[in-house]
Fold:
Amino acid sequence: MPTVVATWPFGQTAVRAALPLLRQGRPALDVALAGAQAIEDDPAIHSVGYGGIGNSIGTVSLDACVMDGRTLHCGGVAAVENVRHVAALARRVMERTPHVLLVGEGARLFAVQQGFPLDTLLTPESVAEWYKTRPKPNANPAPNPRDQGHDTVTVLVLDQKGSLGGVCTTSGLAHKLPGRVGDSPLIGSGLYVDDTAGAAGATGVGEEIIRISGSFFVVEQMRAGRTPQEACEAAVRRLSSVAVRRGVHPARVAFLALDVKGRVGAAATSRTNFQYAVSKGNKVELVQAREIDAEGK
Ligand code: ASP
Structure:
C-alpha cells in the first residue's frame, strides 16, 4: 500500500503536500521531496529551512540529504547558508555531480550554479526566538546538544510501484557552533533507504545518532528480518546502551522506519515525546511513538 510518513506533528503538513504526488504515481523521491519542501517553506517551523533558528552567531545553516531505494543513489549538503530548498539541492548533488556530499561555501556555490536563489533564511520571529533561547554570553562556548532545540523533518515514501525514497532536511541544533554538522545530511546516520531492506530516518541529537550510524542500523535490522517497529526499538536500545557505556543519560532521539510492505515503525528514547504523521489512504494520522528507557524497556 503506497504510504508517506514524516517526523513530528508538523510532518502532517509534509504528508498532506506529498499525497497528491503519491496518487499521481510519481516516484518515491519526488513525493518525499514535495513533502519536505512544504516544511522548508514554512516560516513557522523553527527547525527546518526558511525561519530556522540560527547557530551560535545567529546564522541559519542547513543540512539535508536524499536517497533513492531503487539504486542507492544518494546526495547531501551540509552547513549551507542562504539556500532555502536544501533537500532539492541535495538531489542535484546526487543527479548532477559524481559526489555524494557538498558542504559550506562549496555547496552554496553549487546552488548558485544550479540556479537556486540566495536569500536570507531569517524571519523577524526566528530572530526573536534566537535571542530568547540563546545561551547567556560567556556560557560554555560549545552548547550542549542535549539542551538545544531541534526537530528535523524526515519523509519516507513507498510509491505505487513498490519503491522507497527518503528525504531528511533540518537547520540542525539551535545555537550550534558554526560549522557543526549533524546526522541529517549524512547517509546512514539521518537517513538510509534500500528497497531490498527498508527505509529509515532519524531525529534528535545528531551526535548520538552518528555514533551508531542510526538509520543504517535500523535498515540492517529490517534486512535481518525484523519489522520496522522492532528495528527502531533495536536502534534505540543500541543508542541507550552506548550512552550507558559512556556514563551519560540517553539523549532525545527517535527513529522512524517504513518497509516495502508499507509497514511503519517508530521508537524514541524516554521523554522525547516523538510523534509522526502517516498517510492512511487520503487521510493523515498522527501517531505517538513507543519510548524505551535507559534499561531498554
Ligand atoms: N538531528 C538533528 C541534528 O542533530 C536535529 C533534530 O532532528 O532534532 O542536527
Remarks:
- The helical segments are 11-23, 28-40, 86-96, 104-113, 124-133, 206-211, 214-223, 228-246.
